[in-house]
Amino acid sequence: MKKLSILLLAGLTLTACSSAGDSTEGERDITVMVAASMCDLAETVAGEMSGVTTVCSGSADLVAQIETGAAADILVTANQKTADQIIDAERGTQLDVIATNELVLVVPAGNPAGVTGFDESMNASDLVVCAPQVPCGDVSSQLAELNGLTLTPVSEEQSVTDVLGKIVSGQGDAGLVYRTDANSAGDAVEIIDIPGAGEVPNTYPLLVIDSDSADDAEQAWIDAFTTGAGRQRMIDSGFTTP
């Protein structure tokens, strides 16, 4: 177990690509795995530090990678259920929940399919959602039930970034994504709020892997990601931070 350190958390996040910086002499390199919806933020932090490798993907995929032996020091998932898999397997310790997010409906600019909202008009279009085992898919199912709907998607994706990509590229008429991802698409999409979305937020737990506390290298990344400029970037992207 790593040496116990005092944790001061205020926010955090990562997602779906991979990046690394050169470490300076005497520093320990770390690998940070982050849910796809936070990838851009995590890679920005990695670019400002040395010795940090960022791995971004859907939360379920990240958990599967750790369970099959992939090296990781910090994990940020997009819901509690995936984080609990690591905790229950005694592979990591949760330090905090660093942010929340909510689902929205997006359509391509101009709304060519004439989707009127989170209603049956979605099912008359080419609807794209996350797969049920993915955090955004889990929330999609909960919101459908809350609104008395049955979703009939033409495609179920493994990450929220894949859903957004299909809408932006014109391969789908409507998609369910996080507000932060919708914001990142700018004028390429139109955002439609979902009734009750605030009642079913996605939470972002932060865990250290195979440890009960963060060491100095891990704490440096946590501080950079969740405080100061890092926290402000999360807020500007549309995350809600504690």
Automatic annotation (TrEMBL):
PROSITE patterns: PROKAR_LIPOPROTEIN
Matches recorded under InterPro entries: ModA/WtpA
Keywords: Signal
Keyword Signal assigned: yes
Signal peptide: 1-20
Top-level lineage group: Bacteria
Gene3D superfamilies to which the protein is assigned, alphabetical: Periplasmic binding protein-like II (3.40.190.10)
Short name of any one Pfam family annotated for the protein: SBP_bac_11
Keyword Signal: yes
Protein name: Substrate-binding domain-containing protein
